[in-house]
Amino acid sequence: MAFAERLAFVKQNLQLAEDGAVAEDHFHAETRALHLDGLVPAGLNDQTFLQLSTYITLADWLGLQLILPQSMLEPMHNAGRRIALDWADYYDLQDIKIAGRPVDVLLSANGIPDHQILKIKHLRRIGDGMKFGELRAMFKPDVTIAPNRRLHDLARALIAKHGIKGCVHLRRTDRLIVGNLRDSGLIFNLATQPFNVIAHLKHQKFPPDIYIMSDMPEDDPIIAKMRQSSRYKFQFVYDFPELMRMKQDNNYKLFAMEKCIYEQVAYRADGKRLRDFYCCRGTFSDLKHSWLHKLQDIMYRRQLEKSQGEQA
Asked: Which has the closest alpha carbon to 197: 183, 184, 211, 182?
């Protein structure tokens, strides 16, 4: 990639972290590293596989190494506790690849002269200037980051000890209200009910020993219903004292370990697969874009918000 093309991109799209000035004069032949002033606050997956992966790709395209940005993890997914994101707690930072090609990142700016560091503002998702979504669409990052080796090995030992053959990711608490970019909370609620989960597992011929990774509280009625299944032995974090200790200390670390379980078993299902299975069965697809669906969704949200207010 010609330096002039990279310089033109920097001049047009990136701003210095200190004063918002155009970063053109700070990108030159001696520049070695890219430094961000932070990331958009979010959960672990968002900050890693949406944001970090994009900036790793940007730095690589510019011929630089990314200095891992400092950030905080969204407290909503950690019992209201706001903690710093220590990347090494969750990932093997020596095993990062772009399209299968190893790339290096820097843990800090130590030892790098200041004039060799391009310090920029992170891109916002709304507002003036280039948006983060535009940057991501431009580079289409293909980044893989291996999990922390200790968490990987812990998951493998847990699978072997308890005979876990499959894993289902049931993200319910926030998805019941906000849904995602394609579906409402109503569809997420229906698609993750026990009747649909079990129907999907039967359809895919899942074995009986299944670990459920979920943010549901222990007394959630969904858990109670799933435990009544005669066909499947569903296990949750609450069944493992060692995982409960991890959850109480740092729920994000538990989530990273559970993802290792998910990746290591042969049978897997997540919210997207459950949603697709639910809609393909014809139970809701014919209402998806109708006014009836919109009315049902509004009523559902109001009822859910009312029940949550009464519980509070």
From this structure: 211
Burial tier of 291 (Cβ tally within 10 Å: 0-12, 13-18, 19+): exposed
3-state helix, strand, coil in the chain (%, to 5): 50, 15, 35
- Please report the domains of the chain, with CATH numbers, ordered by start residue: 3-147 (no CATH), 149-311 (3.40.50)
> 26-70, pLDDT tens digit by residue?
788 888 999 999 999 899 999 999 999 999 999 999 999 999 999
Q: What pLDDT, on a 0 to 100 scale, did the predictor assign at position 251?
A: 96
CB 67 within 8 A of CB 109: yes
Is it the case that residue 258 has pLDDT exceeding 70?
yes
Residue among 238, 48, 267, 243 at smallest CA distance from 155: 243
Take residue 191 and report the two structure tokens written for it.
């698609």
Q: How far apart are CA 251 and CA 232, in angstroms?
A: 26
Please, are residues 143 and 57 in contact by the beta-carbon 8 Å criterion? yes
Do β-strands 83-84 and 72-73 pair in parallel, antiparallel, or remain unpaired? antiparallel
> Interhelix angle for 251-264 vs 149-162, to 10°?
60
Mean pLDDT of all residues in 209-218: 95
Residue 117, phi then psi, degrees to nearest 5: -115, 125
Distance CA 117, CA 115 (A): 6
Q: Which residue's entry shows tokens 């002269």? A: 113
Q: Phi-psi bin for 188: left (phi > 0), alpha (psi -120 to 50), beta?
A: alpha
Question: Facing residues of 84 across strands?
Answer: 72
Strand ranges inside 110-262, DSSP E: 117-120, 143-147, 166-170, 209-214, 233-235
Give burial (CB, 10 Å; 0-12/13-18/19+) of 252: buried
